[in-house]
């Protein structure tokens, strides 16, 4: 995997190398790309909140928010209007859609490093 920050690529082979990039103070924006360049996870850190964007040859997805308790994992809806109407996409009180905590963003980065696939700790909406 490669971590891109300010147009500079850094190889990431294990959790320690990923943590060195994301902790203790992560860069504002980092893009994690699979070795073949076909899957990317873009992470933006804004203090106490974060945004995730997933991109493949066929998918452009925004993280809606964390997976609520009891909801099926790895859900994707076609647009935000459907997410608002879908009870499985309920957000915690006061949460804004398209935002996750920095801890959830780090968890997504770790899952991508481990599996090479789209993180399942958040729900996804097709980018308009």
UniProtKB/TrEMBL annotation:
Pfam families: Imm1. This is Immunity protein Imm1.
């Amino acid at each position: 995997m490669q971590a891109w920050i300010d147009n500079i690529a850094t190889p990431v082979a294990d959790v320690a190398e990923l943590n060195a990039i994301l902790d203790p103070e992560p860069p504002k924006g980092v893009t994690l790309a699979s070795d073949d360049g076909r899957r990317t996870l873009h992470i933006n850190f804004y203090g106490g909140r974060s945004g995730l964007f997933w991109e493949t040859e066929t998918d452009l997805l925004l993280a809606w928010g964390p997976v609520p308790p009891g909801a099926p994992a790895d859900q994707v809806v076609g647009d935000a209007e459907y997410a608002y109407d879908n009870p499985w996409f309920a957000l915690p009180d006061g949460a804004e859609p398209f935002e996750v905590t920095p801890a959830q963003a780090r968890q997504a980065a770790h899952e991508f490093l481990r599996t090479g696939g789209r993180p399942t700790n958040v729900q996804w909406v097709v980018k308009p």
